[in-house]
């Protein structure tokens, strides 16, 4: 068997995949908007438990979730338009490298914000 056979995704399949990605992106956006509104209502309720520091953590976590979802949808869209397996592998490799760096940065930011929020709960001596 020839190992140099070139497999190309049919254009109709790429178009269908792109349409599905856009529909999933729209549904996810609606879900995130509803969740953000619900969290906003909850976090404005009077409570001595929910300090402004923890509201900041919550808002940052939501922002990161949106960013990560958008990165995933962008990848799915690019994958839907990949013409061959080499393109798919290159896209996945680039995405994995970028997301590892992104997750590390996000974890550091969240860690700093959580530490500040916990510190603000400690009684002043």
What is the element layout, followed by pairings?
Blueprint: H1 11-44, H2 52-80, H3 85-121
Helix pairs in contact: 1-2, 2-3
Describe the model.
This protein is mainly α and 125 residues long. The chain has one domain. The protein is built from three helices and no strands. Helix 1 runs antiparallel to helix 2 and helix 2 runs antiparallel to helix 3.
β-strand percent reads: under 5%
How many β-strand runs?
0
Ends: how far apart? 77 Å
Estimate the global geometry from the Cα principal axes.
Answer: elongated
For this entry, what is the oligomeric state of its chains? single chain
What sequence of helices (H) and strands (E) makes up the elements? HHH
Number of spatially distinct domains: 1
Work out the radius of gyration: 21 Å
Helix content: over 70%
Query: Main β-sheet, in a few words?
Result: none
| Mean of pLDDT | 82
Number of helices: 3
Describe the structure using short key phrases.
mainly alpha, 125 residues
Summarize the structure.
By secondary structure, the protein is mostly helical.
